[in-house]
Give the backbone structure.
Amino acid sequence: MEKEKKWPEKWQELTPGCMVFRPGSTREYHTGTWRAQRPIYDTGRCIKCGVCYIFCPEGCISQDADGYFMADLDYCKGCGICAHECWPGAIKMVEEG
């Protein structure tokens, strides 16, 4: 019986070339632990345009039941593209604490 591969928890544990061991397993691989900054959303300024959703390179932003877009912090790497592209200024990046 083959021992199941333990998935890396930190970027330092990645294999060279970021090899994929099993297709379709990205939801199991939480990359949010790499983050130095996190997005904070201000729903008072949000106009529900979805620009943050469109520009997120990780695809970790989704719309909630009220129509606001929020990042899934299990997968957000804190790149800040969502905050940069949010022209109403509804997203701010803060230091991970």
Notes: The beta strands are 37-41, 61-63, 69-71, 91-95. Helices lie at 51-55, 81-85. The longest strand covers residues 37-41.
